[in-house]
């Protein structure tokens, strides 16, 4: 449907084109996600793997709402800004990966429709979404652990075991940040390549 394609275009601009989020793109993204979640409940939208991926993409914006709520109601706590950043980071990472999954599925539908049909099922799409959410949740858990160990080691600097754990978590967190940055660049390149191929394959010769 045209509305879903417009929504995907909006999310691509928001997460894979803009260098950073801003109030306007965030508000448009939230409104688009709310409309899409309502639209996907319509009987006019068939239950396909692409719809599952788009539904999970729209649900990821609930994390943005949670970050706004945490800043509004937990602003007096020291951990509130960190929690809000974690929620926004989780939203961005889930959205980027899901957008790339939609792009890969579009590639398969365009160039390998028959061969890929057994793999483009609703069940496998749901499993894929759960796996993506689980990986991002594990990433956030590592960042939260590093933050907690950093605060604990600052309050008890003489504890050698705690200091060692903090060093290990800091190293793992730094590697994960570097990997996330590299993966973000790779996803941008892959998405550009996929839609470049699709566009020229559908253009009149």
Structural overview:
With 205 residues, this protein is an all-alpha fold. It has a single domain, classed as Rhodopsin 7-helix transmembrane proteins (Rhopdopsin 7-helix transmembrane proteins, Up-down Bundle). 83% of the residues lie in helices and 0% in strands. It is globular and about 65 Å long. The mean pLDDT is 86. One of its GO terms (biological process) is positive regulation of Rho protein signal transduction.
State the domain count: 1
Q: How big is the Rg?
A: 20 Å
Beta-strand content: under 5%
Order of helices and strands: HHHHHHHH
Detail the poorly predicted runs. none
Keywords: G-protein coupled receptor, Glycoprotein, Membrane, Receptor, Transducer, Transmembrane, Transmembrane helix
Membrane topology: Multi-pass membrane protein
Domain G-protein coupled receptors family 1 profile: 32-205
GO molecular function, one term: G protein-coupled receptor activity
Notable characteristics:
LPAR6 protein, 83% helix, transmembrane helix, globular, 205 residues, 8 helices, Rhopdopsin 7-helix transmembrane proteins, mainly alpha
Task: Please render the helix and strand layout as text.
Layout: H1 2-17, H2 23-39, H3 49-60, H4 62-73, H5 80-111, H6 113-116, H7 122-155, H8 160-202
Task: Put the structure in a nutshell.
The protein has 205 residues and is mostly helical. The protein has helices at 2-17, 23-39, 49-60, 62-73, 80-111, 113-116, 122-155, 160-202.
């Amino acid at each position: 449907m045209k509305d879903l394609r417009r929504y995907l275009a909006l999310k691509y601009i928001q997460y894979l084109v803009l260098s950073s989020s801003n109030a306007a793109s965030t508000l448009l993204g939230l409104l688009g996600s709310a409309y899409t979640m309502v639209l996907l409940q319509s009987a006019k939208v068939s239950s396909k793997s692409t719809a599952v991926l788009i539904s999970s993409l729209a649900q990821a914006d609930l994390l943005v709402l949670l970050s706004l709520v945490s800043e509004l109601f937990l602003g007096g706590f020291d951990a509130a800004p960190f929690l809000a950043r974690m929620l926004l980071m989780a939203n961005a990472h889930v959205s980027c990966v899901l957008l790339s999954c939609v792009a890969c599925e579009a590639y398969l539908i365009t160039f390998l429709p028959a061969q890929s049909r057994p793999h483009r099922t609703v069940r496998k799409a749901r499993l894929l979404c759960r796996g993506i959410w689980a990986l991002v949740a594990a990433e956030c858990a590592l960042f939260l652990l590093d933050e907690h160990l950093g605060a604990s080691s600052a309050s008890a600097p003489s504890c050698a075991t705690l200091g060692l754990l903090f060093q290990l978590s800091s190293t793992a967190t730094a590697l994960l940040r570097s990997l996330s940055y590299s993966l973000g660049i790779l996803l941008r390149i892959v998405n550009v390549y996929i839609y470049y191929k699709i566009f020229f394959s559908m253009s009149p010769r």
